[in-house]
Every structure is written in C-alpha cells, then in structure tokens.
Amino acid sequence: MQHLHIFNSQCKQLRIILYNKTRQLCGHEVPIKVPENATIYRVKREIEKVKAVPHQIQWIVFGARNLQDTERLSDYAIRDGYTLYSVPTFIEIPSIPNL
C-alpha cells in the first residue's frame, strides 16, 4: 500500500482540452494521470483510452508548442495541474454543394 502511495505522489494530474472534429468531444476537458516521467506518446495513449481519439491523429500542444512524442513531460517543465491541448492533425471538411 505504501508503494502505491509513493507512485501516486509521483504522478501528474493533467487537464487535457480536446479540439476535435466531433462535436461530442470538442472543448471537453479530459483529466488524466500519468507518471511525471511519461512521454508525450504515453499522454496520447491515455487520451485514446479515455476518449477513443486515435493517438496517431493527435497533436499535443502546450503554450504555443507542438510537443514531440519522444520527449517527456519534464522536458517541457509541465507540472501537476497544467492544461494541455489535444488537436487533430487533420480536419475533415464536409462537402459543400455547388450553388
């Protein structure tokens, strides 16, 4: 039990705001917990687990930077409680009929 407590104290609680093509998810907050040494790729996989947004189409943005999959949260000085943004790497535009 003590080991679990130590692990939890080393986890970061992050808020992820989804910007996504589906209206059900757009602008929604997704709280996730990840270890403080987690990679950005791991953050994407956690979002995928919770909201079924494929990790392959996510950009994770912090400030004005697109974060790289191989980097760690600590590389960007991301702390507990910070907000990250999940943005799709493509946008679907519905076809517009000719007028």
Summarize the structure.
The protein is an alpha+beta fold and 99 residues long.
The helical percent reads: 10-25%
Structural class: alpha+beta
Order of helices and strands: HEEHEEE
Mean pLDDT equals 75
Q: Beta-sheet strand percentage?
A: 25-35%
Low-confidence stretches: 1-8
The CATH homologous superfamily is termed Phosphatidylinositol 3-kinase Catalytic Subunit, Chain A, domain 1
Largest sheet: 5 strands, mixed
Q: In CATH's first tier, which class applies?
A: Alpha Beta
> What does the radius of gyration come to?
15 Å
Distance between the termini: 66 Å
Integer tally of domains: 1
How do the strands of the widest beta sheet line up side by side?
2-1-5-3-4
Describe what you observe in this structure.
Residues 14-85 form the Ubiquitin-like domain. This is Ubiquitin-like domain-containing protein. InterPro entries: Ubiquitin-like_dom (IPR000626), Ubiquitin-like_domsf (IPR029071). The protein is an alpha+beta fold and 99 residues long. It has a single domain, classed as Phosphatidylinositol 3-kinase Catalytic Subunit, Chain A, domain 1 (Ubiquitin-like (UB roll), Roll). 20% of the residues lie in helices and 29% in strands. It is built from 2 helices and 5 strands. The protein has a 5-stranded mixed β-sheet with strand order 2-1-5-3-4. Strand 3 (58-62) and strand 4 form a beta hairpin. The N and C termini lie far apart (66 Å). 17% of the residues are buried.
